[in-house]
Design a protein that fits this description.
single chain, about 525 residues, mainly alpha, two-stranded antiparallel sheet, 22 helices, 2 strands, about 65% helix, disordered N terminus
């Protein structure tokens, strides 16, 4: 490990984090915890199913009602859909398909050799900010950062003589904590949220709102500038707080499976060269097939390559599989680590053999998330929170901060960014329009809260996967370990990002293309 990281007497904040870690790790195994939470949701749904609520569910236009999941029809529906709930759990297919390609690239030595080459030319001082920036950039590929950037963060840090869990923390902060930041290239989240914002804005009582149009890049300037903020905050926390704290956590993973930082040999250098050529050639073929206006990769409705309906966007994970499989095989053939096709299959099998624990956790996580969504408990929390914020009638700056905190709180219970915004936005957008706040500003406040607490909620579908990555290096890693690692990032992002947004608002810096701060728009 990095010799500069020395043990220090824990301060108050570190003692609190240690307490959180110990308490969190005393919880049952994550798989059993999700099973217990499932039982708890069943019990609460039964207890609250007879209650009458005045809050209107914007999805139905009717008073929200808690569904009794212990009713005979609900139980039979749950068991009938159990298999489908598991196999259609979004992260499951994403992780397994991507890991097939990554498994080959890792087994043949391509990833290890490539990282050693990168580390040889990257100043150690810039390792953390570069990793966080790459995590933010991965948003272009939807959820690919979870299965690609985060595990590589551990490998890079370990190979550089630093603690691998610090690498996972920094990468997780960029991929998930900075989910609403964009590094030049807009993500698929931009048109998704703006579309929901437009629907919510048209619910306003103002007749002119019926024709309102929200630009998909209405927060683009703010989210792009936010990249610098997320990188700086993550850089400081990783190097000054997280890594020193990890100095007392020994790396006790299987030594045979941990990366090594030996100098590249002749065969490895040749393998990297030809693997790089293969990767560039594959990318060139993709670009040549995607750039024409008539390309089948484009959205059939908008003809855009980056639209969520475009086959290119829907093929990101298979493309990751291909773009690591091809250079991985080429590297293996040239470097001599692949003798025949059985070695390629063995690489895939080795990767899958390490995913057994994740698959078990994913099963129980999928059932819990499905049941929680069916119960309407999360929707009730979101709507009640939004109505409370409305009734308080705080000053505008406080209201914006309130939206951030409300979103961050609801995010602990509802993982989907679009589901949360469909619930909260339908209440908050028209409400704040009546107070003169534009939908663009309300959406920006939502995005800050949504990103900041992604990294501390076990209900994030990829949370169990991050624990699996951590256990490769520190076998005692549990839910408490990961929450304690990420809590400083979450708190810092909530505070700093909220102040950053308020600074944009106070200085009247445009949030994005076609955006305003006020409603009706003052241009």
């Amino acid at each position: 490990m990095n010799k500069q990281v020395t043990a220090q007497k824990p301060g108050v904040f570190n003692r609190v984090l240690n307490l959180i870690e110990v308490a969190g790790n005393k919880l049952p195994d994550p798989a059993i915890l999700f099973a217990l939470l499932l039982a708890l949701v069943w019990a609460i749904s039964w207890a609250m199913s007879g209650m009458v609520f005045s809050e209107v569910d914007p999805r139905t236009g009717q008073a929200i009602q808690i569904k009794n999941l212990l009713a005979p029809t609900a139980l039979t529906d749950f068991t009938a859909k159990m298999v489908n709930t598991f196999v259609t759990f979004p992260p499951l297919g994403v992780v397994l398909v991507a890991m097939l390609g990554l498994g080959v690239a890792e087994y043949t030595g391509f990833i290890n050799a490539g990282l050693r080459k990168i580390l040889a030319v990257t100043p150690k001082l810039l390792l953390t900010p570069v990793l966080i920036a790459v995590g933010i950039l991965s948003h272009v590929a939807v959820d690919a950062g979870y299965v690609l950037v985060i595990p590589l963060g551990a490998v890079i840090f370990y190979a550089a003589g630093r603690h691998p869990l610090a690498g996972i923390s920094a990468a997780f902060a960029g991929v998930s904590g900075g989910f609403s930041a964009t590094l030049f290239v807009p993500s698929s989240l931009d048109p998704l949220l703006s579309g929901l914002t437009q629907v919510a804005a048209r619910l306003s009582s103002d007749p002119a709102a019926a024709a309102i149009v929200i630009n998909p890049l209405n927060n683009y300037y703010f989210t792009t500038a936010s990249t610098l903020l997320v990188v700086l905050v993550g850089w400081f926390l990783t190097d000054k707080i997280i890594e020193p704290r990890l100095s007392k956590s020994p790396v006790d993973g299987d030594p045979a499976g941990l990366p090594k930082m030996d100098p590249l040999q002749g065969q490895e250098i040749n393998g990297l060269r030809w693997a790089g050529i293969a990767m560039v050639a594959s990318l060139a073929l993709l670009l040549l097939s995607a750039l024409p206006e008539s390309s089948a990769w484009r959205s059939p409705t908008t003809q855009e390559l980056t639209h969520s309906s475009a086959p290119l966007m829907q093929s990101i994970v298979p493309l990751i599989f291909i773009f690591f499989l091809i250079p991985g095989v080429v590297y293996g053939v040239v470097a001599g680590t692949v003798k025949n096709h059985r070695d390629v299959v063995k690489g895939m099998s080795t990767a899958m053999s390490g995913m057994g624990y994740y698959i078990v956790m994913a099963f129980f996580c999928a059932q819990f998330i499905y049941a929680f969504g069916q119960s309407n408990l999360g929707a009730l929390v979101a709507i009640k929170g939004a109505m409370w914020l409305k009734e308080m009638a705080f000053p505008m700056g406080v209201t914006l901060a309130g939206i951030v905190l409300l979103t961050g709180t609801v995010n602990l219970f509802i993982g989907s960014a679009s589901a949360k915004w469909a619930l909260i936005g339908a209440v908050m957008v028209p409400m704040l329009m009546e107070l003169g706040v534009s939908p663009d500003l309300t959406q920006a406040a939502y995005r800050v809260g949504d990103s900041s607490t992604n990294i501390i909620t076990p209900l994030l579908p990829y949370f169990p996967l991050i624990i699996v990555f951590c256990r490769k290096y520190v076998q005692s890693t549990g839910i408490g370990t990961l929450i304690a690692l990420m809590l400083p990032y979450s708190l810092a992002l909530l505070v700093c990002w909220t102040l950053f947004l308020l600074g944009f608002w106070a200085l009247d810096i445009p949030l994005g293309i076609g955006s305003t701060f006020t409603y009706p728009a003052v241009r």
